[in-house]
Amino acid sequence: MCFSELYIYFMIDLLNESYLYGNDLVSEFIFFLQYKKSQQMTHWAAFTHMASLEVSQLKLGSQGLIVSAQGLGCMGLSTNYGPPKSEPEMIKLIHHAIDSGVTFLDTSDSYGPHTNEILISKALKGGYREKVQITTKFGIRWTDGKPDVCGDPAYVRSACEASLKRLEVDYIDLYYAHRIDTRVPIEVTMGELKKLVEEGKVKYIGLSEACASTIRRAHAVHPITAIQAEWSIWAHDLEDEIVPTCRELGIGIVSYSPIGRGFLASGPKLVKSLKEGDFRMNAEHNKNVFERVNEMAIRKGCTAAQLALAWVHHQGTDVVPIPGTTKHENLNQNIGSLSVKLTPAEIVELESFASGDAVLGDRYAYKHYTWKNSDTPPLSSWKGI
Predict the structure, then answer these.
(1) In this structure, what CATH number is given to the domain that contains residue 209?
(2) 128 catalytic, yes or no?
(3) Residue 21 maps to a domain
(4) Which of 18, 96, 116, 218 has the fewest CB atoms within 10 Å, measured from its CB?
């Protein structure tokens, strides 16, 4: 690669704020040249062409579902992260993802609410439905402006039929309980989901933020294909019980927020760009984690986001991360993470950055939204028994 090509690539990265060395352009460029002089240029060449990678497919769980090795978390295309997005632009991004091989699309009836599923339905017109695996979720409903978790059978059925209508599809590839209703035995919720599978409205069943005991009880009613949970360099709480349980039962793992809700891509710079009301405002105290990840990424010739995603990919072929983004260039870089190889020593080093007290704060302000509060009453307690 010639000098002029390297200069162009570097300038593009600066404009995209992929490297966070400082504000002095001259000193940044000098640092870059010094750094690249000490590294094999093949690493940089691999990085600049990562977007042309082919995204492979894999079997998620043991029930037969085939998905792309990396999915697309679609929540941010409609809600939660920043100001409203242009619908035509978000549809273009979804098409770009699918055309690039990212065919595992993750949404929920609570995103918007409802607007995200409608966006997906518009994006899948013109023959795209046959190319994708649609994941959506039920269970979080809004009452008087407050969220409530519901796993009642009648609600499960009505939520599924409403999602089918909004998505304009005949079936949902993977249907999750978004959160676990701790008032309803999980066997009751699963019983209705099983009926939806038998009726052809749902192909595969999943749970999100479920503890090991709830997973086992649910799986005994009908095989669970996937468990969705937050899993990243700085979120390891599922590793002691949930991951071993999934692997024992042949259940796949879908990692949401694999880039730490964007923080592992941009660090403290993300916090400064957030608007009032964005729930990621509490990330300032964890900037040291990002800085260490970013330093290692520089050594590896990739971005911090790619390194964070690569760590998730290296957790096993039964794990599929679903990073979200609203930008084409970030989508391309996320795909590029599939080519980042980590040695066992590098994995240990990465994990050390977020060990102990290095990461402060809870994943959620309300712990009842996590697997730690997902045990349900015994089946014998249910009113219908």
Answers:
(1) 3.20.20.100
(2) no
(3) no
(4) 96
